[in-house]
Amino acid sequence: MKQAIYHQFTERKQLGKKSFAVLIDPDKVDTAAIEQLVSLGIDAKVDYFFVGGSLVISSHLDECIQQIKASCNIPVILFPGSPSQVSKYADALLYLSLISGRNPELLIGQHVISAPFVKKSGLEIMPTGYMVIDGGAPTTVSYISNATPIPADKNEIAMCTAMAGEMLGMKLIYMDAGSGAKRPINELMIEKVAKHIEVPLIVGGGITEPEKAYLNCKAGADVIVVGNAIEKDLSLIKEISHAVHGVAGIKIG
Ligand code: 1GP
């Protein structure tokens, strides 16, 4: 089993280094936009490109990833909204199980159906406990998943969900307020979750300002994901990357 990218995640966590991932939705970018995002990403020292979306209607997922890979060494990690969003050209796949919901299809059902196909892809698979947190508005992910998000102020529920995910063997926990969330996840919840798990913690959804990314990292997020805000203002790539990398985390061990 490939583990290079995951190894990088855990190593960075142990060193107290925070990471910044730019989310690219293949439905929203053309060749020129990808070129621009990659060039800004290289300049800003972006750590990862996450590629995916709740929908992905277009069929150019492979082309999108091939173009990114041809122009930089930044790892490309699939963040799939459905089992069809698998591309062998990526470096790794967030193998998401929606542990905050009670929809069996998204906990295990779709995984069973797509398992042979996913395995054959040869991708590095990263089992990820995916937790959707209420972001103040119904987002695509909450509608598509047909699952109730964890209420934004129920920190204990989030904590116990993440702990259970980790004990079930998830290698990453991803807390997501949903793409374009009105309210990003609050720091108290992030802190509560981060204190009770050892695996790297990814946080995203509705982050529009460098300060928020910085505070999320201070609270315990290891990887910050931003998509929507960057689509609207490309200069944020540099600013958020700077904020995330400026956080001196706590070294473990
Ligand atoms: C959504 O966490 C990601 O799944 C990123 O959200 O597009 O709001 O930055 P935004």
Strand order of the largest sheet: 1-2-3-4-5-6-7-8
Helices and strands, in order, run as HEHEHEEHEHHEHEHEHH
What does the overall shape look like?
globular
Straight-line distance between termini: 26 Å
Helix and strand composition category: alpha/beta
* CATH classification class: Alpha Beta
CATH architecture: Alpha-Beta Barrel
Total helical segments = 10
Biggest sheet, in brief?
8 strands, parallel, barrel
Polypeptide structure, described:
The structure is a single chain. This protein has 253 residues and is α/β, with parallel strands linked by helices. It has one domain: FMN-linked oxidoreductases (TIM Barrel), CATH 3.20.20. The chain has ten helices and eight strands. It has helices at 4-14, 31-43, 61-71, 104-120, 140-145, 155-167, 187-196, 210-219, 228-232, 236-245; strands at residues 19-24, 48-51, 76-78, 92-98, 124-132, 172-176, 201-204, 223-226. An eight-stranded parallel β-barrel has the order 1-2-3-4-5-6-7-8, surrounded by six helices. Helix 2 packs parallel to helix 3 (61-71), helix 6 runs parallel beside helix 7 and helix 8 (210-219) runs parallel beside helix 10. The longest helix has 17 residues, at 104-120. The model has no long low-confidence stretch (mean pLDDT 94). The site of SN-glycerol-1-phosphate (1GP) has 14 residues, from strand 8 and helix 9.
